[in-house]
Amino acid sequence: MRARISIQNASLRFQIFSNPTPTLKEAVLNLVLRRPRVAHSRDFYALRDINLEFAGGQRVGIIGLNGAGKSTLLKMIVGIYAPQTGRIEVEGRVTPMIEIGTGFDVELTGRENIYVNGAILGFSPQEMARREQAIIDFSELAQFIDVPVKYYSTGMYGRLAFSIATMTNPEILLVDEIFSAGDAHFVEKGSRRMKEMMHGSQIVLYVSHSLQHMTELCNHVVVLHHGQVVNQGEPEAMVAYYIYTIVNAG
Fold first, then answer.
1. Rounded distance, CA 75 to CA 249, Å?
2. By C-alpha distance, which of 70, 82, 60 is closest to 221?
3. Which of 61, 77, 114, 134 is the S-S candidate for 221 at Cβ 3.0 to 4.6 Å?
4. Radius of gyration in angstroms for the set of CA atoms belonging to the chain, rounded to a whole number
């Protein structure tokens, strides 16, 4: 199958409430004065009228200021968020490298979490059994693999999560920032694996604040600003556009 992503006029909005939890003083006054509780709300567009098409061979960088909608775009593509308007079509197996480790049960051991996370990624227990040792070896956590995850350090937690998440050969790879947990040795090791996965995937969407990575790893860059696509094209040109038009303008 040739991988493909099509996003057509997609918008995603959230409802924001002002003062949803009044202070104790406000609550008492409302009770004494018999004032109704009023919670004002407004719609906030995280993404608006997104139109993007990606096909096999594309390594797409996504850049923008904090809050521009970069991570939200990846979550919408993978199905965590559904657009209120428009449509998204995805052909190909998606591997999301987004907030890795969020599916861990801290009461379970590292080994048990390998199977839990494998199930979340769509793998059977038999498939995970074949991958188990490779995951343990890559994470370098053999001594601690049967210890509950709640006793892991942040670095150990990140190493196991990363090792599980990168065990696949994805057709479509979604990456939200490059792996950075652990010591310098594991960061370098993890970065090499990420580059191998990116090279082996048909489509890569890569969110990062590293403009150097945009020009080194990508062949197309999308610039987001206030939830909208404001430009896209060749990486060096888009990085220059982003710096002079958005960053310096701020």
1. 28
2. 60
3. 61
4. 21
Q: Which residue has the higher pLDDT, 36 or 248?
A: 248
The encoded tokens of residue 186 equal 């594991």
Q: What is the mean pLDDT of residues 87-94?
A: 92
Cβ contacts of residue 5 below 8 Å, gap of 6+? 52, 53, 54, 77, 88, 89, 90, 91, 172, 203, 205
Residue 49 near residue 11, CB atoms below 8 Å? yes
Query: What amino acid occupies position 175?
Result: V
Q: How far apart are CA 182 and CA 187, in angstroms?
A: 6
Measured between alpha carbons, how far is 137 from 159 in angstroms, rounded to an integer?
11
Closest C-alpha to 101, from 121, 81, 82: 121
Residue 193 confidence (pLDDT): 87
Amino acid 177: pLDDT: 77
